[in-house]
Structures are given as structure tokens and as C-alpha cells.
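Researcher: Before we compare anything, I want clean individual predictions. No alignment, no superposition, just each chain on its own. First chain goes here; please echo the sequence and then give the C-alpha cells.
Model: Echoing the first chain and its structure:
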Amino acid sequence: MMKSGWKRTLIFMLLLWQVLLLAGCDYYVSEQPEKQPTQQVQEPFRNQDSRGRYDTIGKLGTHSISIPAGVIDGWARYMGAPGDFADPKIKAKYQRPPKTYDLPIESFGFLYRITDGDVYTSFRQTQQDYRHDNETLIPYGKPFPWASVSVYGQYDAAAPLNFNFTVQDDFRVSKEVTNIEYIQQPQPLYGLTVYKANNGIDPRTGEPWKSDTLARDRMIKKDQVGNIKTYIKCEFTHHIDSCDHMFYNDDWHIQVWISYSRTYLPQWQEMESNIIKILDSWRVSREGKLLGKQIGKA
């Protein structure tokens, strides 16, 4: 009698184990597709320099580019970077998309040499040149031939590629907040239309401005249909003054900011042209094939 009960118990346990095993298999099969790791995206081909350093890749505005290693001042920022999310929970869960030649670049910066159109690259002669100029020119108040360049991709199709509103609003704020009115000057300067604060006269003293803190000279250049494509603001009261120079490029769909010594203002058009030449030299096909010789490659 006891043997018979023991056998029934054993059979029942075996049947129960089989049922649980089958249920576990069904659960594993049904859950498996969701737990499978995402398929690895194949790394794109990336160009390298003579030291084996990889280029920074992506799409700037309308063109895919490969920026030589050692050129970027800091790092390239891509659209949709974690810093774009204010909510820390969303930022923590965000997975950056793989870097490809189609990944939009929001911005990056580099140093441009005004005198010959070259760029600064670490572990290249320009690195030594830049250090030498820092040591021998800046301490003695001599014009510094390097410009700081920042490039911004423009991806809002509805946003105009001009400074029409920016300039108008700057002039409005200046008048309403500081009671300074910008007056267009009768003579252009280097092909630029010039505006001076109160015609260059400080209304409190009736004499020329002794400070340009709120009264920098402003200059613009319009295209053939009247849109402002270049907007430059320059200091004018110090021995060596700086200019903040912004321009749009329709082909690239980008906005560029340049900062440099006012000594080089006469070369503003050459700067715009050379910076676009530099970007053109970094263009690649969607597969990463260079379309020309890269300016700044070590």
C-alpha cells in the first residue's frame, strides 16, 4: 500500500515537472524576440591621418564630411546629443545613434589662419606656428593672424538663411534699452554697409565714443535680392580690436561665426571664401570616399 502511494507521488511529480518545463519553454520562446540584442550596425569606413588618428565624420547641413583628426577645437556636437534633453531620466535612457556620414552635425569649431587660408592641426607644423604667434605677437600687442571659427548646421527648413530679423532686432533693442540709435554711414567700408552708434558720437559727452561696450560698429552685406547674408560687429577703441563676423552659406545650409582682429577686416570676403574651400576639401561620398585633398590633414 505504501509502495503504491509512493509510486503515484513520483509519477505526479514527474508529470508536474514536465508541465512546468513545457511552460518555461513556451515563455522563453515567446519572450526571446524581445530580449535579443539589437543587430550591430556595421562601422563605416573612416579616413585616417599619418599618425593613424581617425577623422570626425557626419553630415554638415547638406554635405557629408570627414574632418581631419586634430583639427577640431574641442569636439563635434551632433544633433540629438544627450545634452539636448532637459529631463535627466530621458537623457539617461537615450542611446546616441551610431556615427555615420548621414548623422547630422550640429556644430564644431576650428582655428583658421587668415594669412594663408590654412587651419590649425595638432602634431602638424601649424601647431608650432600657433604657439609661436601666441608667444611673440599677443604679448606685444601685435595683430594675431588666427581666427576662431564655429560652424553650425541649419536643419529647420522653415528658418530663413539670413540675418534680416537679427539685425533689425539688434537695432531695436539698442534704441529701446540703451537709447543708442544706429545710423547708416554714407560711405561703404570694404564693400560693407556700415552703421555707427549715434553716428559715432557719445550723446552724453557730444564727443566720439571712448568706449565700445555698447556701441560697436556694425556692418552688413546683402545679396542681390536684399537679404542680409553677412553681419559683422567690431570694436574700435582699443589698440587691437576684435570683430565678430557671421555669415550664411546657402549651398551648405550652414551659419559660420568667425572672431578675429579688426586688422584683418579688409579680408572679410576672402575669409568667407576660404572657409567654404576648407569645408569643400572635407567633403566625402556617403561611403566616406574623399572628393578632394583635405586641408589640414596631418
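Researcher: Okay. Second chain, same rules.
Model: Second chain and its structure:
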Amino acid sequence: MTTLPLRHHPVRVLFVFIVAVVVTAVVGSLFSISAGDEYLALRRPGWAPPAWLFGLVWTVLYAMIAASGWLAWRNGASRAELTVFGVQLVLNAAWTPLFFGLGWYGVAFAEIVLLWLAIVAVVVVFWWRSRAAALLLAPYLAWVSFAAALNVSIAVLN
């Protein structure tokens, strides 16, 4: 496996990871401008969190995702490993347009299952590079697990 050159300045590379995560967040936010209202209009299970919690949680998670990618890179992650990381970012960005933009709750659930599998794959490949990088993704995996359960519940209720 080839690795990305370590000759790049670590702060610059950290910035690249931050930008990649911000782009992921922005794509999602473009389709979720009215998500709070849409979410409140949906029939939701009693255990559904308040709408305001999502932005707070995702802000923290996105910071942890960027740090995870950077730590894995610092520890010699290969192009293939970083590609898996990139795939989970693309899948992350795709969920919001499916769920809120198109209202395709069933398709969004299938997509979030793929996202969950991609996150597991990233955790596994990062574990061998940096346990810290892998562990930083544990809250993300937990939140996506919760979100998948919420997604399927909303799909059934609506």
C-alpha cells in the first residue's frame, strides 16, 4: 500500500481534513435549511431528541472526524485507507438530501446502513494505524446507529 507523503506540513494537512469535513457539513446543511421545521412536522417516536440537539452533536462529531483522519494520516495511513475515510464522508453528505431534501425515508435508511458499514470499515483500518484515530470515531458510530434507528422509526411512522 502506498502512503501519502509525510513531507506535507502537518498543520496544512490538518486544514485539508477540516475542509473535507466542512464541505461534508455544508452539503448536508444546504439540504437541511428547513430541516428543523420538517423534523418537527414528522411523526416521531417518543425517544426522538429535540431538533436543536442535532446541530450541537454534529459540530462535535465533525471535529472528531477531522481529527481522526488527521491522526491516521500522521501515523502513515495509506491512500486506500484514506479513500475509505473519504467514502464515509460522501455517504455522510448524501444522507441529508435523501431524508430532508427528497423525503425518501426508506432510501435514506438504506443509505445510512451503508454509512454505518463505512464508518465501521474506517474504524477497523484506522485501528491499525492509530487507536486514538479509531476511538475518536466511536461517538460518530454510536450517533449514526441512533440516527439509523430514528430514521427507520420515522419511515415507519410517516
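Researcher: What stands out in the second chain?
Model: The chain has a mean pLDDT of 92. Additionally, The CA atoms of residues 44 and 154 lie 6 Å apart.
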